[in-house]
Design goal:
Protein name: F-box domain-containing protein
Shape: elongated
Helix content: 25-40%
Number of helices: 18
Keywords: Coiled coil
Radius of gyration: 40 Å
InterPro entries: LRR_dom_sf
Length: about 550
């Protein structure tokens, strides 16, 4: 690149520039305040310097113009090189499917949660999928990927009650919602809706979602009362062919207004149900095909057995999880108006809390479970550990024929004595999997030497649970490791004593110890377990209880 013809000569200078001797003379005169010997010469210098300074100004202007040009061209070249570098960088080479995965990681989970604290602006952001629109503004390619990927427009959380708090009008919100739904094309939808608000905006929003009912995959429905007219009047032409999971929450006590709603019976893929509320609030469901059901009950039922009534609908092959809150101390003396509830469920998990074994007994007395194979008891949330009712459980086991059907028993933080637990295990000869846990919040020790010694297999065939293959202990470590070692070794050597075990695999045991415990299994015990593992007789896991 050639230089501008106007650039100043590098040799530009002035004959009026002072010499070193002249500068020294001027300094001496300044210091001494003496008059110069030849004032005329200094006056001539001033006149000449004024003219020369003008010449310098012209040259500096020329140089500044050239410097500005050079800086501008340098910036242009740098920007162009950076642009080329960006085009060759990794983000530009990402395939569209990888870019979509990155967009998914930007999903604001906290925003897509039903909450009474949601603002009108947050509702607008959810409807429009604001986070996607922000990403779409990065560049034209990101815009195309964001708008042309139905998967990114497949989740909606809509609470029409929040619309009144939005600056946008209802018609604008409906138009934005319709546009966002249409971008999802035929991709399966995951919806969270609150219904039962009696105004045109709620009905209009629901009608929009009903146009896409064939896409519903997961539906979380919050009912505020009677179902909207568009749901109650839904005809047999409504298709729910994709619906796999339904979460239904009845938000009003003892509301049974949904019991005649039939639309979910026409959902051939519906296999999972989560429900919170009064059992009579549920719409009609295809129970025979539902294989996983979770029921979160409430403390304010008039009759305490009511949460159990839904068990009657459970299919034989289903997993049923019941979450109960029975902490009210008055329940020990309160009448439950007990009725018999028989269920064909095979896998039952009960999460509950109670201070009194009488309440647990009433709970057991109301049930008959003739086909149950897996039975698990857990403490609900961070509430007090439930108290065991041994005699009531023995009665339940007898009428439900547990001695033939029950293969797995899990007691996670249940307050039961070692004596009562051994009594219960006596009636469970087919048990293969057993999980037991101490209760740290109450400091209740369930796993004791007495319990472990009671589980040792004896050659006289009098041992409890002779078919036991898996034992998990979550412990405060208040037992002796000798008792645990004797138990494990006896179960490993089971084939020496019993010929009725078939092709039995290696015995498996897991031991989880509390973090705060200073005790550890000794090296000799660990060495013995290691030897048994090397012989493929034992599978041992040691961990920490967090």
């Amino acid at each position: 690149m050639s230089l501008s013809p106007n650039i100043a000569s590098i040799g530009f200078t002035s004959p009026s520039l002072p010499s070193s001797a002249q500068l020294k003379t001027l300094r001496d005169l300044t210091r001494s305040c003496a008059l110069p010997a030849d004032p005329g010469a200094l006056q001539a210098t001033i006149t000449a310097a004024t003219s020369e300074i003008g010449r310098y100004d012209i040259e500096i202007e020329k140089i500044q113009e050239e410097l500005d040009r050079l800086v501008s061209e340098r910036d242009l070249l740098s920007s162009y090189a950076n642009g080329c570098r960006s085009v060759l960088s990794a983000p530009y080479r990402l395939p569209d499917d990888v870019l979509v995965e990155i967009f998914d990681w930007c999903f604001p989970e906290d925003l897509y949660v039903m909450s009474s604290k949601t603002t009108g602006q947050q509702e607008l952001d959810r409807i429009t999928h604001r986070y996607i629109l922000d990403l779409a503004h990065v560049c034209s390619r990101w815009y195309h990927v964001a708008m042309a990927t139905p998967r990114l427009w497949s989740m909606f959380v809509v609470d029409v009650e929040c619309w009144r708090r939005s600056r946008a009008t209802a018609s604008t919100l409906l138009a934005l919602l319709e546009s966002a739904l249409d971008r999802g094309k035929n991709y399966p939808l995951d919806l969270t809706l609150r219904v039962g608000s009696y105004h045109n905006r709620a009905d209009a929003a629901l009608e929009l979602f009903f146009k896409h009912a064939h896409r519903w995959r997961e539906l979380e429905l919050y009912s505020m009362g009677h179902p909207p007219e568009c749901i109650s009047a839904a005809t047999g032409s409504l298709s729910l062919d994709c619906l796999e999971k339904l979460f239904f929450r009845a938000m009003r006590k003892n509301d049974n207004s949904w019991e005649d709603v039939e639309i979910f019976q026409r959902a051939p893929r519906l296999t999972s149900l989560e429900f919170k509320g009064f059992p009579a609030s549920l719409p009609k469901l295809p129970w025979a095909q539902i294989n996983t059901c979770t029921h979160f009950s409430s403390r304010d039922y008039d009759c305490r057995y009511q949460p159990l009534t839904i068990l009657r609908n459970a299919a034989t092959h289903s997993l049923y999880k019941l979450v109960l809150d029975l902490r009210d101390r008055s329940l020990a003396t309160e009448s439950w108006d007990l009725i018999e509830i028989s269920s064909e469920v095979q896998n039952l998990q009960i999460w509950f809390s109670t201070y009194n074994s009488v309440v647990t007994g009433k709970f057991f007395d109301s049930l008959t479970l003739p086909r149950v194979q897996t039975l698990a008891f857990h403490v609900a949330h961070d509430f007090p550990c439930p108290v065991w009712a041994c005699n009531s459980f023995l009665a339940l086991a007898e009428r439900s024929v547990f001695h033939d059907s029950l293969f797995t028993l899990r007691l996670h933080q249940v307050r039961v004595t070692d004596t009562d637990l051994l009594r219960c295990l006596e009636v469970l000869p087919r048990l293969m999997c057993l999980e037991i846990c101490d209760c740290p919040t109450e400091g209740v020790v369930v796993i004791t030497d007495k319990l472990l010694q009671g589980l040792i297999y004896n050659s006289d065939l009098s041992a409890l649970v002779p078919r036991l293959e898996y034992l998990q202990l979550t412990s405060l470590f208040e037992f002796s490791e000798e008792a645990y070692l004797d138990l494990v070794v006896s179960r490993v050597d089971l084939e020496k004593h019993c010929h009725d075990v078939g092709n039995r695999e290696a015995f498996e045991t897991k031991l989880f110890l509390r973090d705060a415990s200073d005790r550890k299994l000794s090296p000799p015990v660990l060495q013995k377990f290691s030897e048994l593992e090397s012989q493929n007789k034992l599978v041992f896991t040691l961990g920490r209880w967090r």
